[in-house]
């Protein structure tokens, strides 16, 4: 179980994805899209950081929790190095880490939240667990759904969202961003009660 809410130190929120404009609109980069939504809410600006990530720091609302929003500059499968460096740089425990990532096993337009456990076949999460030596962190899992027909999962996540999906994508990103804010402000259980009951 996660520790009780700690008011000391910021929350490190990592959005997973692949670097470069060619990947920016793909399903695999939905975690970074959520971070863009959060940064926009707080009028925060991403800047180059020594931890091989781009980082935006600040509060999203007056008096609200402090956040470090981070996008690793590495490819998804080697996300662990930057995350480990970020935790060290900000002197944070893994219990203050929220990882936002795409999830094939969850239908599109659905957000699921969990703390701890394994990687579930997600290579970015796998590398983070390996690099920081624990799976005890919070995950905001953003559903992208399974590929249709016989399409390979790897091809599915590296393609852009379909036209129908794009119509609902802003709502999905807003839901995932809301989940991050609620986890930080009220705790994981409160956020799960809201988002898991909604579907």
Mean pLDDT across the residues is 92
Shape: globular
Low-confidence stretches: 1-6
CATH superfamily: Peptidyl-tRNA hydrolase
In short:
The protein is an alpha/beta fold and 199 residues long. The chain is 36% helix and 20% strand. Strand 3 and strand 4 (66-72) form a beta hairpin.
Model description:
By secondary structure, the protein is of the alpha/beta class. The protein has one domain (11-197): 3-Layer(aba) Sandwich (Rossmann fold). The chain is 36% helix and 20% strand. It is built from six helices and seven strands, in the order βαβββαββαβααα. The protein has a seven-stranded mixed beta sheet, with helices on both faces. β2 and β3 (53-59) form a beta hairpin. α1 packs across α5 (163-186), α2 (80-89) crosses α3 and α5 packs antiparallel against α6 (188-197).
Properties at a glance:
7 strands, globular, alpha/beta, seven-stranded mixed β-sheet, Rossmann fold, 6 helices, 199 residues
Task: Compile the SSE list and pairings.
Elements: E1 11-15, H1 30-42, E2 47-49, E3 53-59, E4 66-72, H2 80-89, E5 97-103, E6 111-115, H3 123-132, E7 138-143, H4 153-157, H5 163-186, H6 188-197
Parallel strand pairs: 1-4, 1-5, 5-7
Antiparallel strand pairs: 2-3, 3-4, 6-7
